[in-house]
Specification:
Elements (H helix, E strand, L loop, with lengths): L2 H14 L3 E6 L2 E8 L2 E7 L7 E5 L5 E3 L16 E4 L4 E4 L15 E2 L4 E7 L2 E6 L4 E6 L6 E2 L4 E7 L1
Antiparallel strand pairs: 1-2, 2-3, 3-4, 4-5, 6-13, 7-9, 7-12, 8-11, 9-10, 11-13
Amino acid sequence: MNISEIKEMIQAVVESGVAELEVQRGENRVRIVRGGSQQEVIVAQPATVATTPVVFGAAPQAAVQEAAAPPVAPVEDDKNIAVKSPIVGTFYASASPGSAPFVTVGDVVKPGQVLCIVESMKLMNEIESEVSGTIVARLVENGAPVEYGATLFTVRPH
C-alpha cells in the first residue's frame, strides 16, 4: 500500500461516515477508526517495522505521531546540550536485551563515550557523547523509533 491509497481510504471513511474500516493486503494492514472530531489510522507492516498511528481531523490531512514513545518534555535550559539522532532508526539503550544500559540519568560522560545505539537498515550505529557532562534526561524509550534530529538525551556540560 502506498500513501495515496491510504489517503483514498481516509477520504472514503470521511465521505461515507462509517465508524471503522480495516484493509489487509499481504502483511500490510490499515485500520481507520472514526471518533468524534478526530480519527485514528493505524498502518501495520511486517514485524520489523513499527506501527505508526496517524491522527487526522475532518479533512484528510494527516499529522504523524511517534509510535511507542510517550511525549516527554525535554529538560532544557541554556546550560543543557541536546544529543540528537543523526539518523532515522530504532533507539536502543543497551548493547543487547537484558544487559545494562550504556548510560542512565545522573551518569557522568566524557567525549567519545557510547550513549546508545540507533539501528538503521540492520546496522547498529553507536551514538557517542561529544562533550563531558552529566546525563540530565533520556527522552526516548528503549526500542522506540526515532527520526533524524530527534533529541535522545540532554547533557549538562562540565
